[in-house]
Design brief:
The chain is mainly alpha-helical. The protein has helices spanning about 1-25, 25-35, 40-60. Helix 2 crosses helix 3 (about 40-60). The radius of gyration is 14 Å and the shape is elongated.
Length: about 60
């Protein structure tokens, strides 16, 4: 049973890295999404892109001009 949990954790980590790289969110954010909605890739990518889009205005307002 510990092996199953380890395999599941490794899978989540790999998916999180992939989603983070593809969408520009952090791995921690991707893991949070995985914990909320599972590992369905289309759903993860959709939510990750929405999360990233919500972050952009905050990032732009903090940039020095």
């Amino acid at each position: 049973m510990d092996d199953d949990k380890s395999d599941h954790d490794r899978l989540k980590s790999l998916v999180a890295k992939s989603v983070a790289k593809e969408t520009g969110i952090t791995e921690a954010q991707a893991l949070d999404l995985i914990n909320m909605i599972g590992t369905d890739r289309p759903s993860l990518l959709r939510e990750a892109r929405m999360l990233k889009a919500r972050q952009r205005p905050a990032e732009e307002s903090q940039s020095p001009r």
